[in-house]
Design goal:
The protein has five helices and ten strands, in the order αβαβββαβαβββαββ. With 243 residues, the chain is an alpha+beta fold. The protein folds into two domains: 69 residues, Antifreeze-like/N-acetylneuraminic acid synthase C-terminal domain (Type Iii Antifreeze Protein Isoform Hplc 12, Alpha-Beta Complex), CATH 3.90.1210; 102 residues. The longest helix is centred in the N-terminal third of the chain and has 43 residues. The protein is rod-shaped.
Length: 243
């Protein structure tokens, strides 16, 4: 009995050592796995990603096209951990959209900030010296309706006191009698809305009140410059050299 005690004690100690070593090995493995996941997590959160950030205030209703043409955003890189949910990385995503609310400087652009349509879409197509002016209702001959649509460009002629002249060439049509401004949810106005510079706006208003408009549709590409013209009964017939 006394001779067996040391042997049992030795076996018990060996078992304890084996269990301890196994536990230590398991703990080491778990620690290595944890450190590996931690390193991957840290590396992923600091990995740079591309995002669009507002350079200055973007008012509600601004179109995605205006954001690009007016240089209202910058493409930059930030750590992935700072990337907002729905943040936009590709400027192409903005095509056909409008700002749903004011977007402030240094704010990331997200899909939630934009909508497919806007009542304020007409104003979003204006900036600086450009203004929108509505023409009086025109018949099919004077307005070339319904061929002329929003997005087309026209030469605008006016007839006043028996004389027809070029009021302004290459004018952008913002809305037509049957088509609202691009992306707008507003109802159609039944008339043409044109984009003109501030200096021309009073002339368009005067012509609308006292004369008659004629719209001449321009080619979609490669249009040659339109020459100023004043036509009366005395010079209506074709002269030599005219094309």
């Amino acid at each position: 009995m006394e001779n067996l005690a040391p042997s049992r004690l030795l076996k018990t100690r060996q078992g304890t050592i084996v269990v301890g070593v196994a536990a230590a090995v398991l703990a080491a493995i778990l620690l290595l796995v944890y450190l590996s996941h931690y390193r991957s997590s840290v590396k992923g959160s600091t990995e740079p990603v591309t995002v669009l950030v507002a350079k200055r205030l973007i008012p509600k209703g601004t179109s995605g096209t205006a954001l690009a043409t007016q240089n209202l955003f910058v493409v930059t890189t930030i750590p992935k951990s700072q990337f907002k949910l729905g943040a936009i990385s590709d400027p192409a995503v903005l095509r056909g959209t409008f700002a749903a609310a004011d977007i402030y400087p240094r704010q990331q652009l997200t899909t939630a900030d934009f909508t497919a349509a806007s009542v304020g879409a007409l104003a979003a197509q204006l900036s600086g010296r450009w203004r929108a002016v509505a023409l009086p209702p025109l018949d099919a001959a004077h307005g070339l309706s319904p061929a002329v649509q929003a997005g087309d460009r026209v030469d605008v002629y006016g007839e006043l006191n028996g004389t027809i002249g070029l009021l302004m060439p290459n004018v952008l049509v913002l809305a037509s009698p049957t088509q609202p401004a691009a992306g707008s949810t507003a109802p159609v106005t039944g008339t043409y809305i044109l984009r003109v510079p501030t200096g021309k706006a009073p002339k368009f208003a005067y012509m609308g009140q006292n004369g008659t408009y004629w719209l001449v549709l321009r080619p979609g590409h490669g249009a040659t410059p339109t020459q100023p013209a004043f036509v009366t009964a005395d010079n209506t017939l074709l002269h030599r050299g005219e094309r």
